[in-house]
Design brief:
CATH class of chain B: Mainly Alpha
Shape of chain A: globular
Radius of gyration of chain A: 22 Å
Largest sheet of chain B: none
Helix content of chain A: over 70%
Radius of gyration of chain B: 24 Å
Order of helices and strands of chain B: HHHH
Strand order of the largest sheet of chain A: 1-2
Strand content of chain A: under 5%
Number of strands of chain B: 0
Shape of chain B: elongated
Structural class of chain A: mainly alpha
Mean pLDDT of chain B: 85
Strand content of chain B: under 5%
Low-confidence stretches of chain B: none
Number of domains of chain B: 1
Distance between the termini of chain A: 15 Å
Oligomer: heterodimer
Chain lengths: 506, 127
């Protein structure tokens, strides 16, 4: 049983998605919600168990169908991917809980789609095979296309159309890149690719370089890095907020793939191809932060503002990845978990505030007073302090760590100044938005039948996400040690390859 | 054979990219389809083009690489599903937005509306 543990975070959501489509479990509203919640919590528990196993026994390998590593597909659960799987399943459970209050009935098949999305994301984190990564990308994308349309506002059709077309082109480019890499390397297993990249000679080096940089285009599209980030603000702002909260993990899939490919395969050991993407990533990250900050200031809706905050966080993450030291990767892991939790929480707050302001919804302008100003205001303050990066919450630690790790990089002065100015811009914009929404009232009262109070399920979901901010700063010591451990494993080239290529045989 | 194969992929990519950059959803969908055909052909050639080689069945010293064929099969299935989805989405977009322009509104129409509004205003001011 324990050897199949790695497969559970993929198998359970698939099982959940399928049985939720069938009669006794998916028939009535209560059945659906109960089954979906139970199974998402079960998935979270399974991934927590996997996390503790990986922490105790080191990286786990699962050869699907018992076909050993370079020939068959393997799943690799190292600390990095397991942390992200835990984060995904936690986010999934929270979103299911939140949506169970009312949002899931605005369209059909919300619960199965959420589980299929989790299946795709978990698969993308766990797989050790480049083509399998593509397949899981498609699984999570098709679930996200349908979730984006959930709720069915007219304005979301346009955003969905752009999102789908962009991603279809991205998938095609992904396949071309994989074709080139397979053509020169003769393998698609990531560990085996890493081993063979350094042995390339002659023209094959240039072909592999083309393949590697085409992959950068794809991951930049998924992760919303600068020239390819334009789809993100509209998509996230037009999706239902709970769906947008779930999507907070999706840009991270692109960032995670960059980490894997450009530290493992095109990392230090890759001979002539080592660090091919480093320069690109560094400068693109800088410009992404600038554009994100401009977007944050210019946003007129709270949801657009948060979508632009996602872009800023992607920029910071990619800057950390491009430094490619163990410390910077560890900081990136900590930052990634922090930013996912806090953005998801912010999207949920937008939803709750928007419902209570009736016609103005989440526009940053004076409107009817929020019905529960103390509760929602407190939640907003916690999330805002964390996202801006002020002490004492997790954002501050993430930010200090980020600055510490980038201090020795080339052109760090440029980065520091841009990053700090961008943080200031974020501070100003978030403060202005908060004070406008909570303190500028019009003398309008909403009719009692239209008043929407916060439901207990919604509040619990929000508090779980918000609790991440103080908890991550209280337990910062052990968490940072664990992310350092994960980063060390990520950078340890030889043990990575040994474990994957021989571990599958045992 | 290589030249023919490569130029075939090239022409398909050219047409695909050209059509994807058009402003109506129907050409865009056609473009995506052509692009994915080109990608499938390209993936197939990743195992090197060869004549008279056996498939991996039984024993043969000289056989064709089976993996790209499996990859192409997967890519075809996924591409097919995605194309079906984008067609439905395009139809829905046409119904929801009232136009098949990818931006959801007609640029020329909007300009015309603005112009007529301006003209009307100018008339009012004059009268």
């Amino acid at each position: 049983m324990s050897q199949h543990l790695i497969f559970l975070p993929i198998l359970l959501p698939m099982f959940a998605g399928v049985i939720l489509l069938m009669s006794p479990f998916g028939k009535t509203k209560t059945n659906r919600r109960f089954t979906s919640l139970c199974l998402s919590v079960l998935t979270f528990i399974a991934s927590l168990v996997l996390l503790f196993t990986v922490k105790a026994d080191g990286t786990q390998i699962y050869a699907i169908g018992d076909w050993s590593a370079p020939f068959g597909i393997v799943l690799v659960a190292d600390p990095l991917s397991t942390i992200l799987v835990c984060l995904t399943t936690l986010l999934g459970a929270v979103c299911v809980l939140y949506a169970s209050s009312s949002d899931d009935e605005k369209g059909s098949f919300f619960h199965p789609l959420v589980h299929f999305l989790i299946l795709g994301v978990n698969g993308a984190f766990l797989t050790g095979d480049a083509f399998n990564l593509f397949v899981f990308f498609e699984v999570l994308l098709i679930a996200s296309y349908s979730l984006l349309m959930h709720g069915g506002y007219k304005r979301s059709t346009r955003a969905a159309l752009h999102y789908v077309i962009m991603n279809l082109v991205g998938s095609a480019v992904f396949l071309i890149a994989l074709g080139i890499l397979y053509g020169v390397l003769g393998t698609l297993n990531m560990a085996d690719m890493a081993q063979k990249v350094s042995l390339l000679q002659g023209d094959d080096i240039y072909l592999a370089k083309i393949g590697g940089l085409l992959l950068l285009v794809v991951f930049a599209l998924k992760g919303a890095l600068l020239p390819l980030h334009l789809w993100l603000p509209n998509t996230y702002a037009s999706a239902m907020p709970v769906v947008a909260a779930l999507f907070a993990i999706m840009t991270k899939v692109g960032v995670y793939s960059m980490m894997r490919f450009y530290t493992l395969i095109f990392g230090e050991q890759a001979g002539e191809l080592s660090h091919i993407a480093q320069n690109w990533l560094w400068w693109l990250a800088l410009v992404t932060i600038v554009m994100g900050a401009i977007g944050v200031i210019a946003s007129k809706d709270l949801s657009k503002l948060i979508a632009n905050l996602v872009i800023v966080s992607v920029g910071s993450l990619v800057a950390l990845i491009s430094v490619q030291t163990i410390g910077s990767s560890a900081a990136a892991i900590y930052y990634l978990v922090h930013s996912t939790l806090v953005t998801a929480a912010l999207f949920l707050i937008v939803d709750l505030v928007g419902r209570q302001r009736e016609s103005v919804f989440d526009r940053i302008e004076a409107g009817p007073p929020v019905l529960q100003p103390k509760l929602l205001g407190l939640c907003f303050i916690v999330a805002a302090i964390s996202v801006i990066g002020m002490p004492p919450l997790s954002g501050f630690i993430a930010k200090v760590w980020l600055l510490k790790e980038t201090v020795n990089a080339d052109h760090s002065i440029v980065f520091w100044s841009i990053y700090l100015v961008a943080s200031l811009a974020v501070l100003v914009a978030v403060t202005k938005a908060g004070s406008t929404i909570f303190w500028h009232h019009l003398d309008v009262q909403i009719k009692p039948e239209k008043q929407k109070m916060v439901q207990p399920g919604q509040l619990i979901a929000l508090i779980i996400l918000l609790a991440g901010a103080p908890l991550m700063s209280i337990f910062a010591g052990s968490l940072s040690e664990f992310s350092l451990d994960a980063a060390t494993k990520l950078h340890d080239f030889n043990s990575n390859i040994d474990v994957v290529l021989t571990g599958g045989l045992k | 054979m290589e030249l023919l194969y490569a130029s075939c992929i090239g022409v398909l990519v050219f047409c695909g990219v050209f059509l994807i950059l058009r402003a109506r959803t129907f050409p865009v969908v056609l473009g995506l389809t052509m692009f994915s055909y080109a990608v499938n052909l390209f993936l197939f050639s990743a195992g090197r083009l060869s004549l008279n080689k056996a498939a991996v069945l039984g024993y043969s010293s000289d056989y064709a690489d089976p993996l790209p064929q499996a990859l192409v099969l997967t890519a075809i299935v996924i591409g097919f599903a995605m194309t079906a989805f984008v067609v439905i989405l395009a139809i829905r977009g046409r119904a929801d937005l009232g136009t098949d322009h990818v931006d959801g509104y007609e640029v020329e129409k909007q300009l015309k509306v603005k112009k007529t509004r301006k003209a009307k205003k100018a008339k009012k001011v004059k009268s």
